[in-house]
Design brief:
Blueprint (H helix, E strand, L loop, with lengths): L6 H12 L37 H5 L1 H14 L8 H7 L4 H7 L5 H5 L1 H22 L15 H49 L4 H22 L5 H5 L5 H9 L3 H14 L5 H10 L1 H15 L4 H26 L3 H22 L8 H35 E3 L5 E3 H11 L1
Antiparallel strand pairs: 1-2
């Protein structure tokens, strides 16, 4: 009699023998006959090793993590380019009411929720403590927390200058990133124009170069913005083999520049035209260098840390300074001060990284649309200009200044003879 096979032996003999060979050369392990294990008894007292205990620090981090999650999700949204209707809405007289009503949707204000709540809570604690001491609810050993406002009057201009310089330095980086991308866009359009005008033969290679030119701003945008899907953005623009090479490279924008340079070497061009086209590639390298410097080199960290520490220490001691003059009004006063000053600091931090604030997706779409439109209208414009040239060549001006067709003048002259 044949002995029955165990379930593990049956699985190993049937499934692996009938399945096709895998490229990973997976080899099944031989089945071992272990004694059956008793079933596990699940109960509510069994601790789950994957679940981590809820600590006090995690509770405190709940609100900051929530605010940061919303802010990061808003940062990933594409920004639109302004049109005439947008500018009219931007300068509308109702903009103040609209901005006030949309405060809860602002990522700047949402990022202020953790510090404002923290410092307002500190002000509430200080006011409650001083009230308890004044009402003799605590022993006389505990003093009232109060101090002179003279140090704050002396340091307020320093804090204001520090915030102004911090925001101005951030805006200069934003403006530098905007100018760098303006050069990239104008250089891409200029290079595409030179290729369309200079290359008259090799239509297939000409089309491939224009595709690489349109792909360069998209690759640079994905190189600068975190978690960008370059494969999705370039799948309709590049061929599969080209896209595979680009995705496998470590530096995608420079890989596309290599495609452009090597494609130009295969073109049958005159040396002056080739020199002009190769000189246009330098603007691509310059754009990469400027953008990578802005992305990799922030404002000096000591300056950013000094501003943050100054703001924190200022608002931690603000309720003590204002207690003699304001009493319980220190709570709303601290709220207003923290919301105002931290808002200025938060705006400086946001615009310090300019590529998240610029409408790079829309700029790349405009570049692709402009190049594609130039490719479509090239043949039509050339035919129109050639027809005008032939028409002008067929016209011979008469002595009176009026154009006369050569075909009509010749038969008249022969008939007169």
């Amino acid at each position: 009699m044949s002995t029955p096979k165990s379930p593990s032996q049956t699985l190993s003999s049937s499934s692996f023998s009938s399945s096709p060979p895998s490229p990973f050369k997976f080899t099944p392990k031989p089945s071992l006959n272990f004694p059956p294990k008793p079933p596990k008894i699940l109960c509510s007292q069994t601790p789950n090793p994957q679940s981590k205990p809820l600590t006090f620090i995690k509770i405190l981090r709940t609100i900051p993590d929530w605010a940061d999650g919303i802010k990061e999700s808003r940062m990933k949204q594409s920004k639109p380019l302004y049109k005439h209707k947008d500018w009219a809405r931007h300068r509308s007289s109702l903009r103040h009411i609209r901005h006030l009503l949309s405060s809860l949707n602002s990522r700047v204000i949402l990022s202020l929720v953790p510090p404002v709540i923290a410092f307002t809570s500190v002000a509430t604690v200080v006011a409650s403590y001083n009230t308890a001491v004044i009402w003799h609810l605590l022993p006389e050993v505990f003093p009232v927390l109060r101090a002179s406002s003279l140090p704050y009057q002396l340091t307020a201009p320093a804090l204001a200058l520090l915030l102004v310089f911090r925001t101005e330095a951030s805006y200069s980086r934003f403006d530098e990133g905007r100018k760098a991308w303006s050069k990239v866009v104008s250089g891409t359009n200029d290079f595409a124009r030179q290729v369309i005008v200079s290359v008259e033969k090799d239509c297939g290679l000409k089309t491939a170069i224009l595709q690489y030119v349109m792909a360069f701003p998209i690759a640079l945008k994905c190189h600068l913005i975190y978690e960008s899907d370059i494969g999705r953005d370039l799948q309709d623009l590049l061929e599969d083999d080209d896209l595979e090479i680009v995705l496998s490279s470590n530096h995608r924008p420079r890989c596309i520049i290599q495609f452009i340079s090597q494609s130009m070497q295969l073109l049958d061009l005159e040396e002056p035209k080739r020199t002009v086209l190769e000189s246009k590639v330098s603007c691509f390298h310059e754009g990469i260098g400027v953008c990578e410097q802005i992305m990799g080199i922030p404002i000096p960290l000591s300056y950013t840390r000094l501003t943050s520490r100054f703001l924190v220490l200022w608002h931690l001691t603000l309720p003590i300074i204002l207690w003699d003059d304001c009493n319980w009004i220190v709570v709303p006063a601290t709220f207003v001060s923290a919301a105002s000053l931290f808002c200025i600091e938060e705006v400086g931090v946001l615009i310090e990284e300019p590529f998240q604030m610029l409408a790079l997706d829309e700029l790349c779409k405009h570049v692709c649309n402009d190049v594609q439109e130039s490719m479509k209208s090239e043949k039509k414009i050339r035919e129109t200009l050639v027809a005008k040239k032939e028409a002008a060549a067929s016209m011979n001006p008469s002595p009176s200044g009026h154009p006369t067709e050569q075909n009509n003048t010749r038969p008249n002259s022969s008939s007169s003879r």
